[in-house]
Amino acid sequence: MELSQFVPDFAAALKTVDGSCGPAVSIRSGRVYRAGIGPYSEVKAVDLIVSELMRISSERYGTLRTGVPYPLSRQTSDLTLGHPLEWMFEIKMARFQGDNGKPDDTAIKDILSPFEGDRSAVTDCVKLSEKGGAVRKAMIIYGFEAPGRPLSTIARAFEILVGSHVVLGPAWSAAFSNLRHPVHSSGSVYGWEILGGERIAPHGDRDD
């Protein structure tokens, strides 16, 4: 399996799942959101998408598993594929608006924060590189378009920031549209293979 196949399959599964998603309900507040996959938590959305991928092709995706521990670690990966293990994935959702269309100004940290405690896409790439062992590793970002915050810009900013920490392969992307939710109605899935780690020079170091 290659990312060039996985990314569009993930996008297609997301769109299919969206068609059957009822209103999401907040566990904390009990608030009921409008129907569609957009308001769903990342964990719940990924579980639904994984089930759909396995339904689409049990031969290709029958070994998908969530929550598999990293080698010699108590930390777990968002998704793995293969038996024996072939791929480890970390997945992040980019959702910059709420159910009501208001901007979520804190959401960008989920993708771009350099701080380990924020568990961002950037720091997940470092975790994959350092703890993922000898298997292939990839970062998947799926998200929804928002006015003034195009996903393509976020993806490029992510590539620039994470490039100081790991070596990424080329980006693969697949768009989706015509989802049920009036705010989270279109978006894209992006995927990068992590090819290796890269030393960060201490402040003031020079290469010449």
List keywords for this structure.
208 residues; 6 helices; disordered C terminus
Summarize the structure.
By secondary structure, this protein is an alpha+beta fold. It has helices spanning 3-18, 42-56, 58-61, 109-112, 121-131, 151-162, and strands at 23-25, 32-35, 79-81, 87-94, 136-144, 166-168, 172-176, 187-197. Helices cover 30% and strands 22% of the residues.
Descriptive account of the structure:
This protein is an alpha+beta fold. It has one domain (3-197). The chain is 30% helix and 22% strand. It is built from six helices and eight strands; from the N terminus they run H-E-E-H-H-E-E-H-H-E-H-E-E-E. The longest helix has 16 residues, at 3-18. The termini are far apart.
Distance between the termini: 41 Å
| Beta strand % | 15-25%
Mean pLDDT: 90
Number of helices: 6
Number of strands: 8
* Strand and helix order: HEEHHEEHHEHEEE
Largest sheet: 6 strands, mixed
Structural class from helices and strands? alpha+beta
What's the gyration radius in Å? Answer: 17 Å
Indicate the low-confidence ranges by residue numbers.
Answer: 199-208
Number of domains: 1
Gross geometry: globular
Fraction in helix: 25-40%
List the helices and strands and how they pair.
Layout: H1 3-18, E1 23-25, E2 32-35, H2 42-56, H3 58-61, E3 79-81, E4 87-94, H4 109-112, H5 121-131, E5 136-144, H6 151-162, E6 166-168, E7 172-176, E8 187-197
